[in-house]
Write a structure and sequence with these properties.
six-stranded antiparallel beta sheet; alpha+beta; single chain; 173 residues; globular
Length: 173
C-alpha cells in the first residue's frame, strides 16, 4: 500500500516590491489667529478658554479669535480705550481682555454668545452707574452688554473708562 500523505512541494515565496518614496512635505504657512465661526459652547455662558497673558499681543489675538459681531464690538471698545487712556495696559485674564492704568485692572471686555460684556470692577462708584450687574464678578461690578457696534455709546463708555482709572484698581499686575 502506498501512502497518500506524501508531502506536497511548498510554493516559492515572492519578494516584496520596494516601498515607493513619499513626496516631500509641503512647508506649513505661518500661523494665523484662528477665527471662530461661532463661539464655543463654553462661551455661551462663560468667558473663553483663552490663556492668561500680559501685554497687547495676547489681547489683540483674543479679539481676532472672536466671531462677528463680537470681534467688531471688542475692536471698537479696545480702540476707544487706547484713545481715551494714556499708558493703557492690556492683559488676557479669566478668558477676557482686561484693561488698566496704574496700580490694577479697571475694566474687562469679553465675547459671549449674542453680545460683548464690558464690565467695570468698581462700577457702583461710576456716574451714572452702568446698568448691568454681571454674575460672578463681585458685588461692586457693573457694566453693559453690547449686542452690536451701534449699542456702543462711545461718549458714555469713555467717561466710565476715565472714571474707572481714577479709582483704585483691583488685582495686582
Amino acid at each position: 500500500m502506498t501512502s497518500r500523505t506524501a508531502s506536497k512541494p511548498k510554493p516559492a515565496v515572492k519578494p516584496r516590491p520596494a516601498a515607493k518614496p513619499k513626496p516631500a512635505a509641503k512647508p506649513k504657512p505661518a500661523a494665523k489667529p484662528k477665527v471662530l465661526a461661532t463661539l464655543p459652547a463654553a462661551m455661551t455662558g462663560r468667558a473663553s478658554p483663552a490663556k492668561a497673558a500680559l501685554g497687547d499681543a495676547p489681547v489683540f489675538a483674543y479679539i481676532a479669535s472672536l466671531p462677528e459681531p463680537q470681534r467688531s464690538i471688542a475692536t471698537r471698545v479696545d480702540a476707544l480705550a487706547a484713545r481715551t487712556l494714556p499708558a493703557l495696559q492690556r492683559s488676557v485674564k479669566w478668558g477676557m481682555a482686561w484693561y488698566g492704568v496704574g496700580d490694577g485692572w479697571c475694566f474687562s471686555c469679553g465675547g459671549f454668545a449674542g453680545h460683548v460684556k464690558l464690565t467695570f470692577g468698581r462700577g457702583t462708584s461710576l456716574t451714572p452707574v452702568p446698568p448691568v450687574t454681571p454674575i460672578g464678578m463681585g458685588k461692586d461690578s457693573r457694566g453693559v452688554d453690547l449686542a452690536s457696534v451701534g449699542d456702543l455709546d462711545e461718549r458714555q463708555v469713555a467717561a466710565w473708562m476715565t472714571q474707572a482709572t481714577a479709582l483704585p484698581g483691583f488685582g495686582k499686575r
